[in-house]
Amino acid sequence: MKIMIDSVPIEKELLMLTMCNGEREGDGCFIAPSDQVNDGIFDYAMIFNVSRLKILRLLLQALTGTHTQCKDARLGYFRHL
Questions:
Q1: 22-47 residue pLDDT tens
Q2: Domain ranges of the chain
Q3: pLDDT value for 81
Q4: Could you give the CA distance from residue 31 to residue 58 in angstroms, rounded to a whole number?
Q5: C-alpha separations of 27 from 4, 9, 80, 81 in Å
Q6: Residue 57: phi, psi to the nearest 5?
Q7: Which CATH architecture has domain 2-78?
Q8: Which residues contact 27 (CB under 8 A, 6 or more apart)?
Q9: What's the pLDDT score for residue 80?
Q10: SS3 string of 13-47?
């Protein structure tokens, strides 16, 4: 995937890219645990192309928001696409 975030090009092989305007997604997964709805900033979560076992681990960690420290995930924020 090739994307630009705040004029910075990123080219990575990704399994998932989620843009967030709030800390939760779906049925309570904390995809962007530090995001605020009214701060004018969008958060994102990238999950790199990983094994099925690591996918399961990341999904379980996302339920509690502890995936933020995982080396197979990258979280960040942007103001403009």
A1: 777 777 777 787 777 788 788 888 88
A2: 2-78
A3: 52
A4: 10
A5: 29, 32, 27, 27
A6: -60, -45
A7: Sandwich (2.60)
A8: none
A9: 58
A10: CEEEEEEECCCCECCCECCCCCCCCCCCCEEEEEE
Q: Distance between CA 14 and CA 36 in Å, rounded?
A: 25
Cα torsion for 46, 49, 51, 54, to the nearest 10°? -10
- Residue 78 is predicted with a pLDDT of 77
pLDDT digits (tens, 9 = 90+) for 46-63: 888 888 898 888 888 877
Closest CA to 63 of 26, 20, 28, 22: 28
> In the chain, how many H helices and how many E strands?
1, 5
Q: How far apart are CA 31 and CA 11, in angstroms?
A: 21
Picking from 22, 19, 20, 33, the residue whose alpha carbon sits closest to that of residue 62 is 33
DSSP state of 74: E
